Amino acid sequence: MASIPDNYRDQLSWRWRHFALFSGPEWHRVLNLRTAIFVVEQECPYQEVDQKDTDSWHLELSYDSQLIGTLRVLPPGLSYKECSIGRVAVHCGVSATRSRTRTHEVGAHIL
Fold this sequence. Notes:
By secondary structure, this protein is an alpha+beta fold. The chain has helices at residues 6-9, 24-41, 96-103, 106-110, and strands at 12-18, 57-63, 66-74, 84-90.
């Protein structure tokens, strides 16, 4: 697996928090990214938002203050007997910053 160059990795910031700790604008950023990936890019016109988000923990990955990746961890019993990971999204948009995220396999790093 290709690794992110040190100078790029040093500029990544991670944030781990429960849904209850998000402000409205912060949660909007997460939903905006997930919708851009799952609904627009992957052309999956399905309900992206569900009640499981409110009981989950969320990991955000930012580069240069831009949200470029996110995932959620669902507690045991919410979807499965064990805890589970879902809604893994890494942006590859048109900007130079975002297009580098998939080149450097940021999705693998976020997992």
